Amino acid sequence: MLNTVIIDSQNLFTEGFKLLLNNMEQHKFNFLSLSFDDLLKKDQSAKVDLLFLELDMKLLEEQKQIRKIRRLRKDTKIAILSTFDNTKVVRESFQSGIDAYFLKNTTLEEVEKGISEVLKGKTFMTEGLRLTPKIGHKPKSEVRQNLFGDHYQIKQKLTKREKEVLEQIVLAKSNIEIGELLFISEQTVGVHKKNIMRKLGVHNTVSLVRFAIDNNLA
Fold it and tell me: Where do the Response regulatory domain residues begin and end (predicted)?
């Protein structure tokens, strides 16, 4: 029996996913009602074998949460449930410490196969996903298309340094980390970040990351 946690903002999806998992022949599940806060408690009183975690627009926040959970629960298998098929998002999720990446439109058979693989200590991702883009291929995304137009023209609005800063922001780096990497001060990073958001017409970090992914800017 696998102690399993599903954290998804859509309750209807969560309940439906539980029903699907219960139809599997190879695995049996014991569903635990635990939140992020419960999982991050230091006492780790509840053993969790398998964690299904939603990945949506709050990319930076969720990537940080994954890293925290991975540090505290080294034996828990972490599987992403998402609509994002962007190669950078998939790659960074695995680098954050996940074991499997499932698109929400995948089949039950593929989920069952993926669970079997991660329980053997392997990694798994939905068929068709890639960690690197195909040559000459622009990854599609189910995120809405931004109205600013062609991504090449948008990218020309940014200076070379702003592009470097943006790339690190998408990788969930803090201002301090970006400053150390690019040999500039934390304050200078903050100025570049404000200029980038002003040029791209966004007002917070989450929107900035979403915009960058939508338009293949980083």
Answer: 3-119
